[in-house]
Amino acid sequence: xxxxxxxxxxxxxxxxxxxxxxxxxxxxxxxxxxxxxxxxxxxxxxxxxxxxxxxxxxxxxxxxxxxxxxxxxxxxxxxxxxxxxxxxxxxxxxxxxxxxxxxxx
Length: 105
Known about the structure:
The chain is of the alpha+beta class. The protein has a domain of 48 residues: 2-Layer Sandwich (Double Stranded RNA Binding Domain), CATH 3.30.160. 42% of the residues lie in helices and 11% in strands. Strands 1-2 form a two-stranded antiparallel ribbon. A two-stranded antiparallel sheet has the order 3-4. It is flat.
């Protein structure tokens, strides 16, 4: 990317990334007009309107609209905490919680 240090393996991925810098959001939800940078984010968002939850947990009855949320949820059952703070011994199930925690330091 000419605007930041990120690098990509193919031109299509670079083009989608560049929308972060340009603000372009060409994919609009027909249900609420919310816009997205890429088609997959739109597809996942549309499940809010349809109620579809195609990613089911194998440990409990819960199901989720995207695979990332399922993966994070499954760590509740496995006890896995792969995200470690570099400033203290705490570990976390998901990157978002680690990022929030690191603001304390």
